[in-house]
Specification:
- By secondary structure, the protein is mainly alpha-helical.
- Strands 1, 2, 3, 4 and 5 form a five-stranded mixed beta sheet that branches.
- The chain is elongated.
- 61% of the residues lie in helices and 5% in strands.
- Helix 1 packs across helix 2, helix 4 (54-67) packs across helix 6 (84-96) and helix 31 (593-599) crosses helix 33.
Length: 996
Amino acid sequence: MTTVPGRRSSTFTRLLRHGFTDPSAAERLLDLPELSSVRSDPVLLDALGATADPDLALRGVVRLVEAEEPDERQILLDTLVTAKPLRDRLLGVLGASEALGDHLARHPRDWQALVTYEATDLHPGVPEFEQGLAGADDPDSLRAAYRRCLLAIAARDVCGTTDVAETAAELADLATATLRAALAIARTAAPADAAQCRLAVIAMGKCGGHELNYVSDVDVIFVAEPADGVEESAGVQAATRLAAHMMRICSDTTVEGTIWPVDANLRPEGRNGPLVRTLSSHLAYYQRWAKTWEFQALLKARPVAGDPELGAEYVEAVSPLVWQAADRENFVADVQKMRRRVVDNIPADRVDREIKLGPGGLRDVEFAVQLLQLVHGRNDTTLHSGSTLDALRALAAGGYVGRVDAAQLDDAYRFLRAMEHRIQLYRLRRTHLVPEGEADLRRIGRSLGMRTDPITEINQAWKRHASVARRLHEKLFYRPLLDAVAQLAPGESRLSAKAAEHRLEALGYADPAAALRHLEALSSGVTRKAAIQRTLLPVLLGWFADSADPDAGLLGFRKVSDALGKTPWYLRLLRDEGAAAENLARVLSAGRLAPDLLLRAPEAVAILGDPQGLKPRGREHLEQEVLAAVGRAKGAESAVAAVRGVRRRELFRTTAADLIGSYGTEERPAEQYPGALVDRVGNAVTDLNAVTIAGALRAVVREQWGDTLPTRFAVIGMGRFGGHELGYGSDADVLFVHSPREGVDDHEAARAANQVVSEMRKLLQLPTADPPLMIDADLRPEGKSGPLVRTLRSYEAYYRRWSLVWESQALLRAEPMAGDGELGREFIELIDPLRYPMEGLGEDAVREIRRLKARMESERMPRGADPTLHTKLGRGGLSDVEWTVQLMQMQHGWAEPGLRTTRTREALAAACAAELIPGEDAQTLDEAWVLATRVRNAVMLVRGRPGDTFPSGPRELTAVGRYLGYEPGHVGDMLDDYRRITRRARAVVEERFYGA
């Protein structure tokens, strides 16, 4: 073909216009002598331009023509330009699949399999495929025959003769025929084994569901029985040899390549279990040991090869077990956990390209449909289908899924499966990753009918359908509940109240009837509030269900909505701020404390939508707000009420942040370092209580004495308050110290100080909507028998003459918290020599501390309490760790500045740094202390009242477990871990504290 230099030929231009990306190479191929008779035929060029990849299609034609015998080439070319059905089929396959082009180059006569165009050829089933494989009597001939049949399936697919569901069904039927042929080859190779057993092959997964991919593992389960007169063990062994040989025939790679792997890992016990079992052995396993996911997998079980009667018996026997799976404890949680685990295991660099397993992928659709089938299939046999799309249609027809949702999900699933088929068809490789290369995306887009800008169009369509799949996956399991209690759109089916209760029960709601009433109250009507809540509730119900107490979550949401539903910002916050809705769901369903705090002033829900709202506010900022509120108030009582309101709001902020950090959200995983959560809570609650006391002090002084109290006055934090380790249920341990101002009589100063303390305690504990702050001064000199308030000189005199070693130990936690800062510093200077004695403790003092600790362990443990689970006084609990650390502080604090701290973890780290305790022992003590503290916090969050041991009720115990990171059904693991960690800590205490 001659052209003027510098000018493109007309053929080049036509090739470019027909979609060729390398027209120069295409020109050279068309100029080959083998194509001389057709190169100018416009029909051929138009047909090539209609394929997914014209360049690939032309290369495939050239390779096929070159592979044909010379006298056969012209027949092929003549048929190609005169027979449109063949032309469309052959070029369509060559333009979409390089692998099938390779097959045709090896087996050029196979193009003739595409010539016929009869009715049976358009929609073949298992008999037609068995006929196509009939001559295959060895692995190589079976592979060649399989590819020949696959060629016809792909041709119908790319030409649009079959849709994606029909293509998947044909691939499953071809797999069925192939498994039968492979088993026949194995039986022929071992007739003695074949005579000793009855073997049935049960298809699982996509093959069982009649929805197979082009390249996929074919999941199977083998069931066998001995032949008459044969011992069971001998029959099972013979069946095992046949099954293993059949698997190798399909899976091994030969000169003809491979067919697909046969995967038997869905069998009982997985790869650790026997390959073949008898029917009774299968049933024994499923009845005693099977996990929820195994029943979910059995949804798709279908006998496909071997003994048909035995296969039917197997399906008939296991089917009732499948439809009882939803009655299992933690059923929904187990299935949802498995789905999350699948997503979590996807490498981060692949998750956005995973069309099967990623968010919005095929698995999202399949899991949602299967969950609904298992829940409602107990009472509705129309849902008993292994096919995802058939099951989805049945769910819509039964009213379990809205028709619009079902149609959208069907559309998304079909698109994603079609895209997956085109990705795999190219090289017949098992992959679910959307390619990144432009050539690959262009071919896929064109194969799906996108011709204007295929790369942009395919990316947009994929993201759109994945978004729909993801949204409906989240919604589908919950939305029909609302349709049972709210007005439905015209033409929609209705989910019955009974079916809705089944759904709620499966989700973990203990009182589904009450839950339905709440849903009705929230979503019925035509108001804007009802409309927005109908949109919000599907996802909220899912988050509630992912907690230990879904009923409490839904009830709490109703109460908050009743209080704030008419406030425009509330519903807008939940609708537009995705984090706010999820945060609210987590907070409302995790226990009693946080919802109680919120419901006393529901407007605090705004905290959950502010990106900075969950961060604790510093003491300085809080003190400014509190003192300003006191300054505005009229009278001490109203001032302290305002202060307590701030405390309640900030307690809610702290509990919400703790719960959300412990549970994690879809956007942010759970906090990985429990110690960070404990420190955050301890610091936040300590700062809050210190500010509250400072505000109450200012309010009382202001009302009685104006700006100046007759005596300088300070509040010293003690115990966990002074150590910045307060939990939600902790009292504020304090000492009160005062020093009369110059010219003030001692009696007047003492009377004023005592009056301040009395009034502060009364106002902070008044019964109101806000939680009280209990102030405990029992650590003062002489305990309850001593004066409530002392002067600094009185403390000095007492400690000089009467102080006991336990009082010096208690002073390790002393830190000024409120009042006169200078007086607080003077108090600390007074007690430092007591708590950090020069040269450390003498032997008598050490013996006394150990004696006191042993006495406390034997006398103060509550009767009937399990010492292995008591967080404060139990083995390896808070007392064990704290006394061990405090002993080191008193012995070495005089020489090691790092030990002079009120905080347990900080002192332990300093002791380790000073080589006073090995790093491993320090880590053991720290882990136990953090865990025990978190358990105490969890108990308060869950029960709404403090406790030092794990709750006994299963729901509360599960809630504590969820807070600590244990999934439902694993509270036993939680208790075992607690005992193990604290047992190790106690061993360190025995050595480091008792010197054992």
